[in-house]
Amino acid sequence: MLKIAFDPIYAHPLPEGHRFPMLKYELIPQQLLHEGLITEDSLFSPEPLNEETILLTHDKVYWEQLRNLSLLPKEQRRIGFPLTHQLVEREIRIAKGTIDGCHYAFENGIAFNVAGGTHHAGSNWGEGFCMLNDQAIAANYLLNKGLAQSILIIDLDVHQGNGTAEIFEQEPRVFTFSMHGDKNFPFRKERSDLDIPLADGVSDDEFLDLVYCTVPQLIAQQKPDFIFYLSGVDVLESDKLGKLSLTKEACKERDRFVLQQCKNAGVPVQVSMGGGYSPHIRDIVEAHCNTYRVAVDIFF
To answer: Based on the structure, what is the number of domains in the chain?
Structure first.
């Protein structure tokens, strides 16, 4: 059974002005249920994550300032909204959902977090609406528990996974790959193990050719025993922030190819949804739902 981390708190505690793109967290499960691709049993609600696991990834002082809502105003501005206890709880539940998803992926080959992809959070900073890095936390959890020895993170969101790159800069057991807009946020990039910067306006064929060439090669070279995939749909031509020119069909083919490579290699994969900022919510939801549709076709 396809398992998906979902909690209503993912959508509701956000400040005014940030709620529109977050509607997808409610609409994606509704659409999948409507289509009959999943049942209510597919959805699970994660508990808050414990501090011990958070501190495998994030600096203690940073975490305590986040938990106590005592970050400086400039640090809150870097995150993008003022802190609240609800927002912090949202982040720790998202991170726990990604960890829970790893366990389900070991059982079923794949699992999803309807939120997640908070890849701008570094070891001691939050940025770009990201406070805790869910996939980095989950990767360190797997390493700490001896559940994985070699991890590949495939980040195909339009923005560089700068926080993920910084967290694992000195960790040889985790290979970070980010393909992203060169002139897009964050404007100060970190160094992933492999970065592929894209010019503005890159369209379907060029983007997909890079995916076709790079992903199988990385899996063959790194021989991971677990893969994290960040499947942001802000690569769409309709996206307000993306600056690329992909169609929904190409975005779906991207996901189909990546997930098929994971299945072919017999490597479990956890998928976090990442960004999507098209003006029409239906375009965001449809593109994200395509990721689930191809997963069902490939794994179930």
So the answer is: 1
Rg for the chain, CA atoms, rounded: 17
List the CATH number of the domain containing 254.
3.40.800.20
**Which whole-number Å values give the CA distances from 246 to 24, 96, 119, 250, in the listed order?**
20, 32, 21, 6
Span 111-140, mean pLDDT? 97
pLDDT of 173 > 90? The answer is yes
Token readout for 191 is: 């160094």
- Closest of 126, 96, 128, 92 to residue 113, by C-alpha: 96
Q: How far apart are CA 165 and CA 176, in angstroms?
A: 6
234: domain range? 4-299
**Is the pLDDT score of 71 beyond 80?**
yes
CA proximity to 93, closest of 25, 30, 174, 160: 25
CA atoms 161, 244, 224, 42: torsion sign: positive
